[in-house]
Write a structure and sequence with these properties.
about 325 residues, alpha/beta, Rossmann fold, Alpha-Beta Plaits, six-stranded mixed sheet, 8 helices, 15 strands, about 20% strand, globular
């Protein structure tokens, strides 16, 4: 396991310690075991209760809620900043004038598209032709004045840049949280270089439990297709759930089936244990009638750029991997 994966796993595993904390208003940092005023003058039991209460109170101060109750303030902001950094760097490092590029879909790819628009506007990039992987990306690119095409007219791409929902140590990916994995895969498979951009929260030791596997299916008999998928040997233990509401995320934000840009439904496959053989799972899904495309991107990434607190690291696919699923 690489240091990046170890660091991400350690951060996920670290427990919150209910100890008194002192907040430094000047730099926003916290230190443990600060003295609690008056505790020394109390009986032992009362002092312990005072310290415990103060510690819990400080924990509450240390993790204020964002409006709407979406977790500690600053957490989303930090992740967005990491996404912006890695999105911008992917364009700066891998896109040159005259290229045909694939534009991905999602919260990280958004910043890569934004950077292309900026560099075209400034004149740093010229003669770029881009192929979007979703209607959302197409609309963003049009607003930024990025020239667009399709694979019908430009079947060979120099580079495609996109995010991922999960990345394992072998650089196998799960994509499709935004419901665009069919279009993403057909575009990214046509690229000489596929650059994946993620923040370190997307790293995992094994695909499956970290993020549900999206599978685009035709609406006709989709419940039957879900039962067939659940019975596939390589997907043993999965629980298919029909995506409801918006296709752009896997949260249940509606009561009707989510519909993709292609007019299909999405089944999100939930796992409690890592998938032993993602390639076999991908192949079995590919062979299932009713499945349009799955969210496994095995052996497709040329390089993964990973944004973390210590900066941006890069991991390249080892040579000799040719089969794509």
């Amino acid at each position: 396991m690489t240091l990046a994966w170890q660091a991400a796993a350690l951060r996920r595993a670290l427990p919150r310690c209910a100890v008194p904390l002192r907040r430094s208003v000047a730099n926003g940092q916290f230190s443990a075991a600060a003295p609690v005023p008056g505790a020394a003058r109390l009986p032992a039991a009362a002092a312990m209760a005072t310290v415990a209460t103060a510690g819990l109170a400080c924990l509450a101060v240390a993790a204020p809620k964002r409006p709407g109750g979406k977790g500690p303030a600053g957490m989303d902001a930090r992740q967005d900043e990491l996404k912006k950094q890695v999105g911008y760097k992917s364009i700066d490092d891998y896109v040159r004038s005259g290229m045909v590029i694939g534009l991905g879909t999602g919260s990280t790819a958004y910043f890569a598209v934004e950077r292309v628009g900026q560099k075209l506007a400034s004149g740093e990039l010229k003669d770029i032709v881009a192929i979007p992987t979703s209607q959302r990306t197409k609309e963003q690119a049009e607003k930024l004045g990025i020239p667009l095409a399709t694979l019908d007219t430009h079947p060979h791409l120099d580079v495609a840049i996109d995010g991922a929902d999960s990345v394992d140590p072998s650089l196998n990916l799960v994509k499709g949280g935004g419901g665009a994995h069919f279009r993403e895969k057909i575009v990214e498979a046509a690229a000489k270089t596929f650059v994946v951009i993620v923040d370190d929260s997307k790293l995992c030791d094994g695909l499956g439990p970290h993020f549900p596997i999206p599978v685009e299916v035709v609406p006709f008999c989709h419940e039957h297709t879900a039962r067939v998928i659940e019975s596939l040997p390589a997907l043993k233990g999965c629980k298919p759930m029909l995506r409801l509401g918006s296709a752009a995320n896997n949260k249940r934000d509606g009561d009707k089936p989510a519909v993709t840009d292609n007019g299909n439904y999405i089944l999100d496959l939930h796992f409690t244990a890592p998938i032993k053989d993602p390639r076999a799972a991908a192949q079995q899904l590919k062979n299932t009638i009713g499945v349009v495309e799955h969210g496994f991107f095995c052996n497709m990434a040329s390089v993964v750029l990973i944004a973390g607190k210590d900066g941006i690291s890069e991991k390249k696919r080892r040579q000799g991997w040719f089969s794509r699923l």
